[in-house]
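Session log. Operator J.P. requested a structure for one protein chain; no other inputs attached. Running the standard single-chain path with token output.
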Amino acid sequence: MLTVFVPKEQVRGETRVAAIPETIKKLVKEGLAVRAEFDAGLSSSITNAMLEEAGAAIVPAGSEAAAWAESDVVLKVAPPTAEEAGRLKQGALLVGFVSPHANLDVVKVLMERKVSTLAMELVPRISRAQSMDALSSQASIAGYKAVLIAAASLDKYFPLMMTAAGTVKPARIVVMGAGVAGLQAVATAKRLGAVVEVSDIRGAVKEQVESLGGKFIDLPMDESGDGEGGYAKEVTPDFLKKQQAIVAEHVKNADVVITTAAVPGRPAPKLVTEEMVKSMREGAVIVDLAVATGGNCVLSKPDENVVAHGVEIIGHSNLAASVPADASMLYSRNVLTLMKLLIAESAINLDLEDEIVAGALLTHEGVCRHERTAAALEGGN
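Structure written below.
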């Protein structure tokens, strides 16, 4: 019987877990033996007793190394460290986020141990894989939470308020990037009554923005920012400069700026310059959701609240983890759906001809199968 191990996440601030009682029951039903590290789900309000009741065996504290070394499959959330990768059984299957472009040392260890790695961020954006799209499920949470943080930090109301003492104007919000996080931010800010404007280099998202009640900031579309699978692609410095010049006028009048722009496998584009921050009013707020990959604002810092030129710049690198119960539920369902694609008669079958498997497979049999990561590895040699 194949053994699946669910470790407790060790990265500071990571509260999510890769399997919850609901998904453990389904994995057991598929004929897999599930083991969970002691207190693996505690930060997501899941006790050891709940995991055991679902069918998981609890690995006692101090026995984690053996569980890593003996398990056929390991399910994770945060990218593994090189040490964790080195604990994996030769030829094991690892499922989770990896951030390969930022963790080439980890990729090398996975290759050395001939680990088959399904990176959740590499799951292709096709209709058949929507239920496995962990980037989207977690980004939606981040977009929602970013607005709540901004509302709690701002020195004024979000909605229009008619009071006996007079009218309070609604807050003005600029959202940069209309991907999943950005669109959720638009929807949440509109529900709170703010006036929302949105900037994105992909003209294709204009209709989605307007359907949520946001106003799309039109850019000179002499260059398309539409990339593969609905993601943004890297644009030329000239185009980025034109975008900044147009958006700067909207930022100047904003109470809140929420930046969500990201390009897969690349540092986050710098969209908010120091001059733009200086132009904002005292007491304004910026929430930078791209801070983990360098940030969209030049002044943001990972996991710090910076006050610059009277503007509070909030750089939370893992907002999804601030809503651990629902984030773990959605992520574990993404993982389960991907696992069910692989399970055949209680065994793991990696069909390399399957578009989803081929797209998500980072390492396999000692080889890096992801073209961009393989090129980065060669460049580093």
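Operator note: The chain has a mean pLDDT of 94.
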